[in-house]
Amino acid sequence: MTDSTLPARSQAVARALAAAGVTGEIVVLPDSARTAAEAAAALGCEVGAIANSLVFRCDGAPLLVMTSGAHRVDTDHLATALGTGPITRAGADEVRAATGQAIGGVAPTGHPAPLRTVVDTALERYEVLWAAAGHPHTVVPLTYGELLRVTGGTPTAVTAG
Fold first, then answer.
1. Which of 3, 79, 131, 137 is most buried by a 10 A CB count?
2. φ, ψ for residue 61, nearest 5 deg
3. How many Å apart are CA 16 and CA 51, to the nearest integer?
4. What is the C-alpha separation between 97 and 141, in angstroms, rounded?
5. pLDDT for residue 1
6. DSSP 3-state assignment of 124?
7. Rounded Cα–Cα distance for residues 98 and 91 (Å)
8. Which helix (H) or strand (E) holds 142?
9. Is the pTM of this model over 0.90?
10. How far apart are the first and last CA of the chain?
11. Backbone angles phi and psi of 100, in degrees to 5
């Protein structure tokens, strides 16, 4: 059952996670976790264990990239790996239209419609990942396998090194 004290966007994420069989509970942080560094500091974990949800434009459609907070997405490398045209960062309005969520709180699931998703293989080395849960103050713990399952994502290295 969804915790009615969560923000509305986080309630939608909680429902999507439950439907996917994810048992981790959404955590409400006292301060914003808009960046991987803020989230890692609040949670007491490595910044690499933060699964950033970044939305890009790729071949005329949104592309969700779940990447480790320890590095930046190399869009040229990623386009080559995926065999696509150029990949560019989506604007705030495009992010909200694609996910129903604001930058800084974009969850891996709970979107109005499924998104093509790439999951950074660098995240696989962490036992527990933390992803935003629909609001800048909410996060949820996931395993790498759960992240792949809830996103339907393709495991891909998002940097050249």
1. 131
2. -135, 160
3. 17
4. 25
5. 37
6. helix
7. 11
8. strand 138-142
9. yes
10. 42
11. 75, 10
Contacts of 125 (CB under 8 A, 6+ apart): 48
Count of CB atoms situated within 10 Å of the CB of 108: 32
Helix H, strand E, coil C: the string for 38-61 is: HHHHHHCCCHHHEEEEEEEEECCE
To which residue do tokens 């974990």 refer?
A: 45
3-state secondary structure 61-123: EEEEEEEECCCCCCHHHHHHHHCCCCEEECCHHHHHHHHCCCCCCCCCCCCCCCCEEEEEHHH
| Of the candidates 160, 89, 80, 76, the residue with the CA atom closest to the CA atom of residue 120 | 160
CA dihedral 15, 21, 23, 27 (to 10 degrees): -30
Residue type (1 letter), 9: R
Three-class SS state of 153: coil
DSSP annotation of 161 reads -
